[in-house]
Amino acid sequence: MSEDFVLQTARPLIEFQGVYKTYLNGTHAIRDFNLKIHEGEFVFVVGPSGAGKSTFMKLIMHEETPNAGEIIVGDYKFSKMKRRHIPKLRRTMGIVFQDFRLIPNMTVYDNVAFAMHIVGASKMEIRRRVSYALNLVGLSGKARSKPDELSGGEQQRVGLARALVNNPSIIIADEPTGNVDPNMSYEIVELLSEINRRGTTVIMVTHAHQLVRDFGKRVIMIENGTVVADNSEDYDTAFYDDYDDYGEGEYGDDTAYEEVEVGDDFTLANNANYVDSYDTSGETDVPNDLDGDGEYDYVVEGDEYFAEGENVTDGDNAFDNTNEMGGDEV
């Protein structure tokens, strides 16, 4: 029996069955949401702001409850679960936050150990597991440092160590690369991949499209509160160049530009602008650099894009149709 067959036929670790979530203000955050995630998977969750990604994560953690449908996580069926079981459910999860959420007056060691103190672990077990976790993320030599003595990437690695120290079956990473530089972003995802290779299921919410493409994991794309794509091939062909989310200007049979090239028309529907990281060479003398970070700043409807980095002629300090295939993030 092949490993793939076992994965596909085993009972899912996480399952959403026709789930709906509407907030009191009338926002329909999740609608007819159906999804299965199996033990040992690494899943990227992508989608535009307001698509329902955060609500999806909160529903998994039982921070929100659905209005209809069923959610199953491990042995817990949410419709039947009693309140006293919620802490036990959450102990099966490790959470990695975009903003690190470290305790500033604690050392790296104590920040990681704190997660074990909460669950009543013994001192011997705490020493063993904290040492293991810090070694795994490459921070054994920083155990006595305080958070303000660390770089952003190091702080996020402390967050990873804290998330895995209680040996959870699921790691939920909410934009874990959002506050670190591009090189460190790859290191963070490599660490998550290593944790995944050791058997932990990883769910990572991200807007970093190049990371998603480069790591080749399963991709779940959420739009308007429901799943619109559920594998890396769908994401790559239909949603990778996400310049047009509203059905205009499609090049193929999908509703998004596939590969944007010089001379393509950029249609901006219902979005004010996109951040343009076109120039990543570290130059500081960039004609369109409004904030001095060495990168072009904004792309708006009507701009023109030139292949050799020429300046635009419409006077709005932006380039048109920057191409993610060349390293841009629009």
**Cα-atom Rg, whole angstroms?**
22 Å
H/E order of the elements? Answer: HEEEHEEHEHHHEHEHEEHEE
Q: Unreliable segments (pLDDT under 50, ≥5 consecutive)?
A: 1-9, 237-291, 294-330
The strand order across the widest sheet is 6-7-8-3-9-10
Structural class: alpha/beta
Q: Portion of residues in helices? A: 25-40%
Number of beta-strand segments: 12
Largest sheet: 6 strands, mixed
Overall pLDDT score: 74
Amino- and carboxy-terminal Cα gap: 44 Å
Count of individual helical segments? 9
Please tell me what the overall shape is: globular
* Strand content bin: 15-25%
Description:
The protein is an alpha/beta fold and 330 residues long. It contains 9 helices and 12 strands. The strands form 3 sheets. A 6-stranded mixed β-sheet has the order 6-7-8-3-9-10, sandwiched between helices. A hairpin with a 2-residue loop joins β9 and β10 (226-230). α4 (108-118) packs across α5 (123-136) and α5 packs across α6 (152-164). The N and C termini lie far apart (44 Å). The model is unreliable at 1-9, 237-291 and 294-330 (pLDDT under 50).
